[in-house]
């Protein structure tokens, strides 16, 4: 769920910039222009997916298990929390991208 949120958020804003900085040609990066028109729905979808992912993680944390049961295995690995945090940061970055892009472009150029 969190990975889907990251992908949706990165599709309209961060992904084209990252591909261009990696040297991917303008022809491929230009194919993402159509996603700009659906930026708001993608951001909403990403935010909803993140809320659901965090809620699922929190709910797993709250379930009680007797020691030794199969459910006693800690499913909340550091990888899951790390991915959720990364997804949250990327969705937040995508949400404020319109505000920080001019600043970054002035700094880079």
Task: Explain what you see.
Its main location: membrane. One of its GO terms (molecular function) is mercury ion transmembrane transporter activity. It is found in: Cell inner membrane. Keywords: Cell inner membrane, Cell membrane, Membrane, Mercuric resistance, Mercury, Metal-binding, Transmembrane, Transmembrane helix, Transport. With 109 residues, this protein is mainly alpha-helical. It is 71% helix and 0% strand. It has six helices and no strands. Helix 1 (2-12) runs antiparallel to helix 4. The longest helix is centred in the middle third of the chain and has 24 residues, at 39-62. It is elongated.
Query: What's the pLDDT, averaged over the residues?
Result: 75
So how many helices? 6
Number of domains: 1
Cα separation of the termini: 36 Å
Indicate the radius of gyration in whole angstroms: 18 Å
Q: Indicate the structural class.
A: mainly alpha
Helix content: over 70%
Which word captures the global form? elongated
Q: How much strand? A: under 5%
- Runs in which pLDDT lies below 50 for 5 or more consecutive residues are none
**What is the tally of beta strands?**
0
Order of helices and strands: HHHHHH
Largest sheet: none
Short description:
The protein is an all-alpha fold and 109 residues long. Helices cover 71% and strands 0% of the residues. It has 6 helices and no strands.
């Amino acid at each position: 769920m969190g990975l889907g949120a990251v992908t949706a958020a990165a599709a309209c804003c961060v992904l084209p910039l990252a591909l261009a900085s990696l040297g991917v040609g303008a022809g491929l990066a230009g194919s993402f222009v159509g996603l700009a028109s659906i930026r708001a729905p993608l951001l909403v979808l990403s935010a909803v997916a993140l809320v659901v992912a965090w809620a699922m993680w929190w709910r797993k944390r709250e379930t009680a298990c007797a020691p030794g049961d199969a459910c006693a295995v800690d499913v909340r690995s550091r990888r899951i929390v790390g991915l959720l945090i990364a997804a949250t940061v990327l969705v937040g970055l995508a949400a404020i991208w319109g505000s920080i892009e001019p600043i970054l472009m002035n700094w880079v150029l």
